[in-house]
Amino acid sequence: MKQIKKISFWFLVMFLLILICMPGIWIFVSAFRPNPEILAKPANWIPDRWTIHQFTQMFSINGYVSVPAFKYLMNSVIISSVSTVIAITIGMMGGYAFARFNFKGKNKIFLGLMLARAVPGISLSLPLFILFAKIGIINTSFGVILVYVAMNVPFTIWLTDGFFRQIPKEMSEVARTDGCTRLQAFWNVELPLAGPGIGAAAIFAFLLSWNEYALASIITRTVHSKTLPIGMMDYLDEFTINWAGMCAIAVVMIVPAVILTFIVQKHLVSGLTFGGVKG
Amino acid sequence: MANVELKNLTKKYGDVIAVQNMDLFIPHNEFLVLVGPSGCGKSTTLRMIAGLEEITGGEIFIDDQLVNEKDPKDRNVSMVFQNYALYPHMTVEENLGFSLKIAKVDKKEIEERVKEAVQILGLQELQKRKPSQLSGGQRQRVAMGRAIVRRPDAFLFDEPLSNLDAKLRTQMRTEIKKLHQKLQTTIVYVTHDQVEAMTLADRIIIMKDGYIEQIGSPIDVFNNPVNVFVATFIGSPPMNILTANIIKKDAKLFFELDENILMPCPESKFDYLSKKENVIIGIRPEDITPTISSNSSENIWNFEKNIDLVEPLGTETQIFIKLNNKEIISRMYNQREIKIGQKIEFSINLNKIHIFDKDTEKVIK
């Protein structure tokens, strides 16, 4: 009886897992097979023929370029990394200030930052388009970075504020009586302790930029600034959709993000602060 | 090697006064303890000396130099916090050497000074450990080590023993006292524990609501409290306090401790007391003891009372009685058999009673 219970439990888990992972698996499988097979009815679950045709075309390995995926990848990497670094730098300082200092209107400003996030990004697309077109930063990486920084800073402030609050005030005080300036105390003591939190904030900011579609679709126009999610639309022709190509570029998008999350995840384990202060 | 001087020091948080017009001179090498209930301004005072709290008014001098505008890092004082505040991402060694590393002292000297501190505090085995791998007492020791390594002009301790268990607290208390003798440096020590204050201090400052109530040596403060607050704050169990009417009888004055219990007033205070209707009487538990035949002398006055409760503690027995409806504790140092409800005779040493004004609560001299 116990055995049956156990087995049925695992079957349930398997079933749910397959259900959840299905779209992902479908994308991966479809990226490696020809288009007709994807459209086959009834569905062909296991490909008859595996091919990396879409990838070789995308990265113009055999001289023919379907979609300039490499350029899009580079755009994505540059835009996401730069906007993350800037957002984290600003957000971290903001979070520290909110956690450590008292100033006039502190709570109202904090609330304002949160409210800024409540505005749906897409509603800003038209004003942004007109504004960026007028000042001439439409279709530039700079423009996209600017938007992503603005999107990420409030969230980063909110997250890092929480992490800095967890570090006892005495940490910086003792560092300051130990001969540190406020900045040295921050750099040598508080920043290392907030490390996991800042890492978490960074990965959130990076993924948000990496995956963002709505705004990028408005303010990027050409290969010059298009990111991977926008590049995916290149496979959309007037009469046909190259599903295999789309799946392939989706894989190019997913893999780096997953790898990055795995690497950073190790550092996200907090509990580092335990021991310095009796809890 | 430095003295610390506070002149007219004031701290306000909005309208709330934390410390009011505090004047204090702490000579070099003194072990000064600030004691008082929570919220009395003792920690604020300490933090102002360290430079962690901005001052509202007044001046602070360390080593005869005005430090009002100086950053904590330039004041050359070391602070030990209640929660230790060790750097969790550094080993014990790195924790100890951190201040020197920041000051860009060369590596060899850092090593030597860390080694010296390690030896003073007996941390040899723990050098490579992280704070999370240390016990409370060990962490406390490292926190003190970190302060020693800097060779500061003054040490500031902010309730350093409050997080330790009772046994360890006693042990560390002794260590701090030994450390002071070894280092010969000025120490300002904040605590709410009067036992710590008594045992450690060269001089005690008792604070309340931002004001200094009394300054003096532990014994002086214990024997001659200037008001009811100090009298009850110092000493454990606290001094018995009761309000007594003054009664004139046969041209003599008596305190009415209870119905039909009249304690004679000391003659030296007749003039003052004859104008008063009632006063506050303070008697330490050790000055009101069950009568033993040998303690009859001129200044001893006896009365009889029923016992409410008895608490034997081994070295002493605490006896609870009621006078004027207030619970009074008496301490007995011999192991005599006493039963609850029994009526026995108590002796009070009249030289040792404290008399306070009913309105001002100040001592009547």
Q: Could you characterize what this model shows?
A:
The complex is a heterodimer of chains A (279) and B (365). Chain A has 279 residues and is mainly α. Chain A has 2 domains: 2-58, no CATH class; 69-268, MetI-like fold. Chain A has 12 helices and no strands. Chain A is globular, with a radius of gyration of 24 Å. Chain A starts with a helix and ends in an 11-residue tail after the last helix. Chain B has 365 residues and is an alpha+beta fold. Chain B has 2 domains: 4-233, Rossmann fold (3-Layer(aba) Sandwich); 240-357, Nucleic acid-binding proteins (OB fold (Dihydrolipoamide Acetyltransferase, E2P), Beta Barrel), CATH 2.40.50.140. Chain B has helices at residues 42-50, 92-102, 107-121, 136-149, 166-183, 194-200, 218-223, 228-233, 270-273; strands spanning 4-13, 16-26, 31-35, 57-62, 65-66, 77-80, 154-158, 186-191, 203-208, 211-216, 240-249, 252-258, 261-264, 278-283, 288-290, 300-306, 309-312, 317-323, 326-332, 343-349, 354-357. Chain B has a 6-stranded mixed β-sheet, sandwiched between helices. In chain B, strands 13-12-11-14-21 form a 5-stranded antiparallel β-sheet. A 4-stranded antiparallel β-sheet of chain B has the order 2-1-4-5, with helices on one face. In chain B, strand 11 and strand 12 (252-258) form a beta hairpin. The radius of gyration of chain B is 25 Å and the shape is elongated. Chain A binds chain B through residues 168, 170-171, 173-181, 184, 188-189, 192-193, 272-278, and chain B through 50-52, 71-73, 75, 77-79, 81, 83-89, 98-99, 102-103, 130-134, 136, 139, 146, 150, 156, 163.
Which key terms come to mind for this protein?
heterodimer, A: 279 residues, MetI-like fold, 2 domains, 71% helix, B: alpha+beta, Rossmann fold, OB fold (Dihydrolipoamide Acetyltransferase, E2P), 35% strand
